């Protein structure tokens, strides 16, 4: 049996896990969610729920992964043999497979915009023309398939290299680069005339905008931004050494996710307000409004190119983790099988994603439950698969595992006190499941 792969360092694990969590959720989704839901009040609730709900579930996934040193499916089989709990892992792997099939499509859009940024195709347009450009990009069958294919090749090439030589090595370069690029863009954005109005919008809560809907949407954003629920972090933690401090690592990942969300807001909102645009543009904020915003500033083309590079890095680090959970499920910890299964599963994911890529063009008339193919794949994973996965992970750790065994594993390598452990345990066993049920009911339109 080949030796089990492991992260070479704690910082390598944290950067890789943070890269998985950050992705499009923090840089693409957070700004438009905050922009349409009150800015500062949404951000404050997002921070609260990330710490109180997200981080505890993250530690629960770390516990399952590190205690077993197994992939998502095998981990449940080891902890609860002769029981149906392993289906939580199976559903997680299937969800990850589907997520990457349409996530890679968005990665392709970013590559399309990067190409146009280099060739000058993104300069000198009005917001209406940028909207038309975006529609043109996602409608072109050849372009979306070629860019999706390139994005998947980039992802496979890293994952096939393994944990240390592939994912960890690339994350150690990409994540610091991402932070540096963000700082450059934040400085440029907040020094614009009128930028402080955008800073105030993000950081000064207006409690008159607080509604039940804002409350639940912030809860959902905190939940999905951390990549919890599809057993990604179970897989990543399975490569973690027994003496690593899991609670501190989880808080580091959650903290970095909040920090990146803050930076994304400080890049986008000051610039949006400085040039008189509206912050509530929705999902088109990055692809339609931001090009128009950067077009208004000096050297805007260069800064938007930097932003697209940043967005690509974040998208790729998430893609690495999503493909890894699928590959790990097939290799069962045997690194000699990694390269073969990285290419096989990567190719299958690309083929599965073709209908999503074409769902805005030649397959735009195809509807599933009233949604496009792309939107349906997003809905069943983000609104059903992930909440259910996290719900059962919480129940599994809270009710199926012995409390003493959980404490011994979580406290191994950590200085966590029994009081803090008890607070975490209550959050996982009771608070998190109730919160997840609320998110789930809200996503289905029941509440």
UniProtKB/TrEMBL annotation:
<feature type="transmembrane region" description="Helical">
    <location>
        <begin position="376"/>
        <end position="399"/>
    </location>
</feature>
<dbReference type="InterPro" id="IPR000175">
    <property type="entry name" value="Na/ntran_symport"/>
</dbReference>
<feature type="transmembrane region" description="Helical">
    <location>
        <begin position="251"/>
        <end position="277"/>
    </location>
</feature>
<keyword id="KW-0769">Symport</keyword>
<feature type="transmembrane region" description="Helical">
    <location>
        <begin position="144"/>
        <end position="163"/>
    </location>
</feature>
<dbReference type="InterPro" id="IPR047218">
    <property type="entry name" value="YocR/YhdH-like"/>
</dbReference>
<feature type="transmembrane region" description="Helical">
    <location>
        <begin position="12"/>
        <end position="30"/>
    </location>
</feature>
<dbReference type="GO" id="GO:0015293">
    <property type="term" value="F:symporter activity"/>
</dbReference>
<feature type="transmembrane region" description="Helical">
    <location>
        <begin position="175"/>
        <end position="195"/>
    </location>
</feature>
<keyword id="KW-0813">Transport</keyword>
<keyword id="KW-1133">Transmembrane helix</keyword>
<comment type="similarity">
    <text>Belongs to the sodium:neurotransmitter symporter (SNF) (TC 2.A.22) family.</text>
</comment>
<feature type="transmembrane region" description="Helical">
    <location>
        <begin position="342"/>
        <end position="364"/>
    </location>
</feature>
<dbReference type="GO" id="GO:0016020">
    <property type="term" value="C:membrane"/>
</dbReference>
<dbReference type="InterPro" id="IPR037272">
    <property type="entry name" value="SNS_sf"/>
</dbReference>
<protein>
    <recommendedName>
        <fullName>Transporter</fullName>
    </recommendedName>
</protein>
<feature type="transmembrane region" description="Helical">
    <location>
        <begin position="42"/>
        <end position="64"/>
    </location>
</feature>
<dbReference type="Pfam" id="PF00209">
    <property type="entry name" value="SNF"/>
</dbReference>
<feature type="transmembrane region" description="Helical">
    <location>
        <begin position="420"/>
        <end position="441"/>
    </location>
</feature>
<feature type="transmembrane region" description="Helical">
    <location>
        <begin position="85"/>
        <end position="111"/>
    </location>
</feature>
<keyword id="KW-0472">Membrane</keyword>
<keyword id="KW-0812">Transmembrane</keyword>
<feature type="transmembrane region" description="Helical">
    <location>
        <begin position="215"/>
        <end position="239"/>
    </location>
</feature>
<feature type="transmembrane region" description="Helical">
    <location>
        <begin position="297"/>
        <end position="330"/>
    </location>
</feature>
């Amino acid at each position: 049996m080949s030796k089990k792969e492991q992260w070479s360092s704690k910082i390598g694990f944290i950067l890789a896990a943070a890269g998985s969590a950050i992705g499009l959720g923090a840089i693409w989704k957070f700004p438009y969610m905050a922009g349409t839901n009150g800015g500062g009040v949404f951000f404050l609730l997002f921070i609260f729920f990330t710490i109180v709900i997200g981080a505890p579930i993250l530690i629960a996934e770390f516990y399952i992964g590190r205690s077993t040193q197994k992939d998502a499916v095998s981990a449940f089989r080891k902890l609860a043999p002769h029981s149906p709990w392993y289906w939580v892992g199976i559903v997680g792997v299937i969800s990850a497979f589907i997520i990457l099939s349409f996530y890679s499509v968005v990665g392709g859009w970013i590559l399309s915009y990067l190409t146009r940024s280099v060739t000058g195709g993104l300069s000198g347009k009005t917001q209406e023309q940028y909207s038309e450009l975006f529609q043109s990009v996602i409608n072109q069958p050849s372009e979306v398939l070629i860019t999706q294919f390139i994005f998947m090749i980039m992802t496979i090439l890293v994952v096939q290299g393994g944990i240390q030589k592939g994912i960890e090595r690339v994350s150690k370069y990409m994540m610091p680069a991402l932070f540096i690029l963000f700082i450059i863009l934040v400085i440029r954005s907040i020094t614009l005339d009128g930028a402080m109005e955008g800073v105030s919008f993000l950081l000064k809560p207006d409690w008159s905008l607080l509604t039940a809907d804002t409350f639940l949407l912030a809860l959902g954003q905190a939940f999905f931004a951390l990549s919890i629920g599809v057993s990604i972090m179970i897989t990543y933690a399975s490569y973690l050494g027994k003496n690593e401090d899991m609670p501190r690592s989880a808080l580091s990942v959650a903290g970095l996710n909040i920090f990146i969300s803050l930076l994304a807001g400080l890049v986008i909102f000051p610039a949006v307000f400085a040039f008189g645009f509206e912050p509530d543009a929705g999902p088109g904020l990055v692809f339609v409004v931001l090009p128009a915003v950067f077009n208004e500033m000096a050297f805007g083309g260069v800064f938007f190119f930097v932003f697209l590079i940043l967005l690509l890095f974040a998208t790729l680090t998430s893609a690495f983790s999503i493909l890894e959970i699928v590959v790990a499920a097939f290799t069962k910890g045997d690194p000699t099988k990694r390269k073969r299964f990285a290419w096989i599963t990567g190719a299958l994911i690309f083929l599965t994603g073709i209908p999503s890529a074409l769902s805005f063009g030649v397959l735009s008339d195809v509807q599933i439950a009233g949604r496009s193919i792309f939107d349906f794949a997003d809905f069943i994973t983000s609104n059903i698969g992930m909440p259910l996965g996290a719900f059962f992970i919480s129940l599994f750790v809270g009710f199926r595992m012995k409390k003493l065994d959980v404490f011994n594993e979580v406290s191994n390598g950590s200085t966590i006190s029994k009081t803090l452990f008890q607070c975490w345990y209550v959050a996982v066993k009771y608070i998190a499941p109730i919160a997840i049920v609320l998110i789930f009911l809200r996503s289905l339109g029941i509440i």
